[in-house]
Amino acid sequence: MKRAIISDIHGNLEAIQAVLDDIDRQKVDAIYCLGDIVGYGPNPCECVRLVQDRCSMVLLGNHDQGALFDPDGFNVGAEKAIRWTRSQLEQHDRMPKHSADRLSDFLGELPRTHADGELLFVHGSARRPLDEYVFPEDIYNPLKMEHIFELIGRYCFQGHTHIPGVFTMSPEFIAPTIVQGNNECRLPLPRTKAMVNVGSVGQPRDGDRRACYMILEDDQSVLYRRVEYPFDVTCRKIHAITDLDNFLGDRLTQGR
Ligand code: ZN
Prior knowledge:
Strand content: 15-25%
Order of helices and strands: EHEHEHHHEEHEEEEEEEHH
Largest sheet: 6 strands, mixed
CATH class of the domain at 3-113 and 180-189 and 200-253: Alpha Beta
Bound molecules: zinc ion
Number of strands: 12
Number of helices: 8
Oligomer: single chain
Structural class: alpha/beta
Strand order of the largest sheet: 3-2-1-11-12-9
CATH superfamily of the domain at 3-113 and 180-189 and 200-253: Metallo-dependent phosphatases
């Protein structure tokens, strides 16, 4: 079974369209989304609609939650973006033709975790599904890693940091290496437990500006894929919206 897993789209329509096109060519059986469909980017409504249509399992992310309820724990720029995002969702949902399928209803009903046998799916971590970060440097915090691994049956798939890679129990962090000119990297899953960060579709932060997602292959290996998209288009849209900091567009050009 092949499952595509996407996360952290952040209102980037150009990136999610390119990724969905790429997924269509990979012949997968299902698409899962680990949350943060909105926040930061210029097309929140369109992205929610696409995820709703294409994904068979969708989780709530901290930005999705922030757009629905009171944003808490965000920096000034992120909070401004969240308030703008909320206004876009409200504007969409107020239209009479959308009264039967409001985006806020869809987002409001999303679960925070999904379990599938020994596989667990969260946005942040198994310990705090909505908002705990597990960064590569956390391998130097064995207590944190042990606590989180205790909550995992076998493999946990997560997003939130926007940094793709596999955490082993050693603990070790294995980043996929995808040089320019290549667009994929296959990593075998360890026989013991692992946490797998799937990377970010709409705001990569690992120095590669291409959209990132992964495919889980028969629960044996993960195939990371990087997808080119017209980031300059998204960047220009962000620059044209006063409530979105220019930085949110600029960072897309560097993958930072
Ligand atoms: Zn995110």
